Amino acid sequence: MSIASLSTLFYFILQLLHILLSFGSQSWIYIKSARILRSTWISIRIRCCQILYWPIFLQDNGLRSLSCVEYAEKAALHRHSMWSSLALDVLLGNLIGWALLYNAESACWWVMNFTGEITYKSMRSSCAWLMGAPAGFKLNTELAGVLGMVSLNAIQIWSTLSVFLGFLSIYIIKGLAISGILFGMTIPAALIIDIFLLATLHISTLHWLVSLVYSTQTQALADLWRLFR
Known about the structure:
- Pfam families: Gpi1.
- This is Phosphatidylinositol n-acetylglucosaminyltransferase subunit q.
- It is a single chain.
- By secondary structure, the chain is mainly alpha-helical.
- The chain contains ten helices and no strands.
- It has one domain (about 1-229).
- About 85% of the residues lie in helices and about 0% in strands.
- The radius of gyration is 25 Å and the shape is elongated.
């Protein structure tokens, strides 16, 4: 009962913080942040429900579990799977969170180097290869050059913005570590997914633009074929 009361108090504090943060829930910033951090919001909501209801799930289910063996086995399996997954998640979150918190600077340096390696060598060399290779953007050399320059400019602009915002990486890593310590491994994993999607937004935009050009050309060729047929 005391553990259940502490869990309920912890859930109440989280809900109070959520109400304070969502005070301007109709604002543009809140709506966009909820869309960008969609996986994190869902994981936090699931973990808050687990924190609130896990003492109820772990208790005995009354006389029905005594009268029906099948129901008792299913309830016991459900209880064991819930507390084992929750305990393992919290244990992994604490181990990785404390390790990441004590090595935040080295992790930040590794992330920056890895990002620069991917941006400056892999992506730019791939775009330069697609500008002139026979199997590149287009068989037309001039059009392939235009598409390649657009892609290189987008990569350069995004890499410049990431360099300017690089000082926030240490705080992001510490936030991931603290969230892992408090909530378990699921929350920082969902936050990493959202950050990765945000960091690769320029690649998704380029993919959408190239797909739009390709679909438009395919539709035009199909219309031309129907016309001649």
